[in-house]
């Protein structure tokens, strides 16, 4: 049997990620591989770090890209900062808050779960109450942009509460980074992680992470050993920050980092605030069209993420048939509902390079046609 080269179809990616990758980012990926301790590569890594600091709006010295997807960014925060027995306030208003809870419990911590309904933001009042009731809590963990529902939580208010109660905040910014306002230093965020394949529009497989000086202090002062060797940031720090004395920890995904460098460079060129405004403008266009098609949003207007539009599937429409028709006939991917919303909602992503007018037009026209046919 002769196996042919794999030729992926050219899709338009408007789901919950990965999002469309900018052509220049794909080109960067194909540049010649150099050694991961090559002086030219190390110089590029310094630029990646500076660009990540810009994207996160932070001066945190500890700002890196973990060589693994967003989930590893989540795990990096918990495994490095938490110690067995630590109490963590975990906010759960979708799939990813639940994953945070699982991280806490697997590491021998005690999760105090603050639940909010799917499709609603994390309640700042409930979190304040939980912090008052648990003065021994060490961390507050929440998801800024819940990709499973499309709800945006008030990271600024939540992190201010964390500071007030002297607990460290751990923030999931996988879907928010590059898509909506996010200011790590100004908001006093202690540990934050993201992913390369959502609003950064890079290839999947890298997780930007940043720790505040308070978080780094906590890491250095910890008593219990870090249970993961690969994610132990005290070992990785030597690789990312050793001035001229970088040592081998693991082989960096060299070409993926070229891609991240290019995607962050493009973000900086556009300007963060312009990128946030573009996501908002494309969301407004999409929303106007979805309204005409009679598709209602899962999330109330005030808390809607521009980059992740969850809409209810109308009565009598076959979820799977519509998504297959979009994929097979229009090369268009939109997301299925997750968890509580499985079979009930679609998730239309406008992330990074996918947040363009031509995508909005394609999505609305294709949806209209396919839904009309499904009704006949
Ligand atoms: C996608 C996503 C993750 C997980 O990222 P992976 O790269 O798929 O591991 C975590 N949190 C949120 C909010 C996400 O959207």
The Rg value, from CA coordinates, equals: 21 Å
Structural class: alpha/beta
Give average pLDDT, whole number.
Answer: 96
Main β-sheet, spatial strand arrangement: 2-10-9-8-5-3-4
Q: Give the SSE order as H and E letters.
A: EHHEHEHEHEEEHEHEEHHHHEHEEH
Tally of individual helices: 13
- Poorly predicted spans: none
CATH fold naming of the largest domain: Aspartate Aminotransferase, domain 2
- What is the count of structural domains? 2
Report the sheet with the most strands, covering strand number, pairing sense and barrel closure.
7 strands, mixed
What is the CATH-assigned architecture of the largest domain?
3-Layer(aba) Sandwich
Bound molecules: pyridoxal-5'-phosphate
Question: Strand content of the residues, in percent?
Answer: 15-25%
Query: Overall 3D geometry?
Result: globular
Protein name: Alanine-glyoxylate aminotransferase apoenzyme
Enzyme class: transferase
Keywords: Aminotransferase, Pyridoxal phosphate, Transferase
Family: Belongs to the class-V pyridoxal-phosphate-dependent aminotransferase family.
């Amino acid at each position: 049997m002769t196996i042919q080269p794999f030729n992926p179809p050219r899709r338009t990616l408007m789901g919950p990620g990965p999002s469309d990758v900018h052509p220049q980012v794909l080109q960067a990926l194909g540049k010649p591989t150099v050694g991961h301790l090559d002086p030219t590569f190390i110089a590029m890594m310094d630029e990646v770090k500076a660009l990540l600091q810009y994207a996160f709006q932070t001066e945190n010295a500890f700002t890196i890209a973990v060589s693994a997807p967003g989930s590893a960014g989540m795990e990096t925060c918990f495994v490095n900062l938490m110690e067995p027995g630590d109490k963590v306030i975990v906010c759960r208003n979708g799939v990813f808050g639940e994953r945070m809870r699982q991280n806490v419990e697997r590491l021998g911590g005690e999760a105090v779960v603050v639940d909010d309904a799917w499709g609603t933001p994390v309640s700042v009042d409930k979190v304040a109450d939980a912090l008052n009731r648990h003065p021994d809590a060490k961390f507050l963990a929440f998801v800024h942009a819940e990709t499973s529902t499309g709800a945006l939580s008030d990271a600024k208010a939540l992190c201010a509460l964390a500071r007030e109660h002297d607990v460290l905040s751990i923030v999931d910014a996988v879907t928010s980074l590059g898509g909506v306002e996010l200011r790590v230093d100004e908001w006093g965020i202690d540990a934050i992680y993201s992913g390369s394949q959502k609003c950064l529009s890079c290839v999947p497989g890298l997780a930007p992470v940043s720790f505040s000086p308070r978080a780094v202090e906590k890491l250095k002062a910890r008593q219990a050993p870090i249970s993961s060797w690969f994610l132990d940031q005290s070992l990785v720090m030597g690789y990312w920050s050793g001035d001229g004395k970088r040592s081998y920890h693991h082989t960096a995904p060299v070409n993926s980092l070229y891609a991240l460098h290019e995607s962050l460079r493009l973000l900086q060129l556009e300007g963060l605030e312009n990128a946030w405004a573009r996501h908002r403008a494309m969301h407004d266009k999409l929303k106007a069209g979805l309204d005409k098609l009679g598709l209602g949003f899962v999330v109330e207007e005030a808390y809607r993420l521009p980059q992740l539009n969850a809409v209810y599937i109308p009565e009598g429409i076959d979820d799977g048939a519509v998504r297959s028709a979009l994929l097979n006939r229009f090369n268009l991917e939109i997301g299925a509902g997750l968890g509580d919303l499985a079979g009930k909602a679609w998730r239309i992503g406008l992330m990074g390079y996918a947040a363009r007018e031509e995508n909005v037009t394609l999505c609305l026209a294709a949806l209209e046609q396919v839904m009309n046919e499904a009704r006949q």
